[in-house]
């Protein structure tokens, strides 16, 4: 019985290491890019490529989280009292070397899947994929980690938001259209919002650790205002696309997700302690998840019913 409990506890530690609540930031863009390909370009979906892209993206996201765990520990930014971390090193005694090996193994598997995707579509994607993987590593690794600069939101949004949507679209259509680019913009903004909310939560600890994040640069109150702007622009962007008759009005079902960002901003305004604003982080991530999922559904409704 004891062994079963220990095994279960061990699984939970390793599962928590991947930070599963963040994996939707890799799943939703793949789903959205594929939905755009089906709904706008009227393509027949290659489900093998879809699932290959999905698995590779989630592996890269999980590995990026592990790099974050490793390097934050090495730089002395994480301890057993830190909020919002995997905690496998400082709380559960897992060796940093082990985490790095797992992260690199995930990258290796993602690379093998990427080779299959390239062989089935275009080898130009190999360069794009390598850049994405390099950015995933450099986000918290290397001599000048991106996450410690004011550019973390922009770069993570461009790669994990817009980039994944367009790659998912390309592997189905063999092209990138203006419509696909325009529909990927909210995904870029909302992935950036996840990073910004993380930096708002950690603003005190990051400042003490010598980071220069966007939240630190502009200050907490302005950062919350910027986060509000990210949410507002994302919703207004879709309204504008519908208004110019570029996409179906079904896309407006994204407004079913609006309680999530409203709640996130309210919590950030009312609370300041890192533990107290953790729910705001959750609501921000859920905004990205539900917004992207509902937008994809709206496009698919139009395809199947009209």
UniProtKB/TrEMBL annotation:
Gene3D superfamilies in alphabetical order:
UbiA prenyltransferase (1.10.357.140)
Which keywords appear in this protein's UniProt record, sorted alphabetically? Cell membrane, Membrane, Menaquinone biosynthesis, Transferase, Transmembrane, Transmembrane helix
Reactions listed under catalytic activity: an all-trans-polyprenyl diphosphate + 1,4-dihydroxy-2-naphthoate + H(+) = a 2-demethylmenaquinol + CO2 + diphosphate
Q: Write one Pfam family the protein is assigned to.
A: UbiA
The cross-references to InterPro entries, in alphabetical order and at most eight, read: MenA (IPR004657), UbiA_prenyltransferase (IPR000537), UbiA_sf (IPR044878), UBIAD1 (IPR026046)
TM ranges: 21-40, 46-67, 99-117, 123-142, 154-171, 177-196, 223-243, 249-268, 289-305
Q: Which CDD domains match?
A: PT_UbiA_UBIAD1
Task: Give the EC number.
Answer: 2.5.1.74
Q: How does it sit in the membrane?
A: Multi-pass membrane protein
Listed pathway(s): Quinol/quinone metabolism; menaquinone biosynthesis; menaquinol from 1,4-dihydroxy-2-naphthoate: step 1/2
| Top-rank EC class of the record's enzyme | transferase
Classification via NCBIfam families: menA (TIGR00751), PRK06080.1-1 (NF004749)
Q: Its function?
A: Conversion of 1,4-dihydroxy-2-naphthoate (DHNA) to demethylmenaquinone (DMK).
This chain belongs to which protein, by name?
A: 1,4-dihydroxy-2-naphthoate octaprenyltransferase
């Amino acid at each position: 019985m004891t062994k079963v409990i220990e095994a279960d506890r061990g699984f939970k530690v390793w599962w928590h290491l991947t930070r599963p609540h963040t994996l939707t930031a890799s799943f939703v863009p793949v789903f959205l890019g594929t939905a755009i390909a089906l709904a706008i370009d009227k393509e027949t979906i290659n489900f093998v490529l879809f699932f290959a892209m999905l698995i590779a993206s989630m592996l890269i996201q999980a590995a990026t989280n592990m790099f974050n765990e490793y390097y934050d520990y090495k730089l002395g930014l994480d301890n057993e009292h830190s909020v919002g971390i995997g905690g496998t090193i400082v709380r559960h005694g897992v060796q940093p070397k082990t985490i790095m090996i797992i992260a690199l193994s995930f990258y290796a598997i993602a690379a093998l899947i990427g080779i299959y995707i390239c062989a089935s579509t275009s080898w130009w994607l190999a360069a794009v994929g390598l850049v994405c993987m390099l950015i995933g590593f450099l986000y918290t690794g290397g001599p000048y980690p991106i996450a410690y600069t004011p550019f973390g939101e922009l770069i993570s949004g461009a790669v994990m938001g817009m980039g994944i949507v367009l790659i998912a679209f390309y592997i189905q259509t063999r092209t990138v259209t203006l419509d696909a680019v325009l529909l990927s913009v909210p995904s870029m903004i909302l992935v950036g919002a996840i990073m910004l909310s993380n930096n708002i939560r950690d603003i005190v600890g990051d400042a003490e650790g010598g980071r220069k994040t966007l939240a630190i640069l502009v200050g907490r109150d302005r950062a919350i205002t910027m986060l509000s702007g990210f949410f507002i622009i994302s919703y207004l962007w879709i309204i504008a696309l519908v208004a110019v008759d570029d996409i179906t009005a079904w896309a407006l079902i994204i407004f079913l997700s609006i309680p999530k960002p409203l709640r996130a901003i309210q919590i950030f305004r009312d609370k300041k302690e890192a533990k107290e604003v953790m729910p705001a982080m959750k609501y921000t991530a859920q905004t990205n998840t539900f917004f992207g999922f509902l937008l994809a559904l709206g496009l698919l409704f139009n395809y199947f019913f009209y």
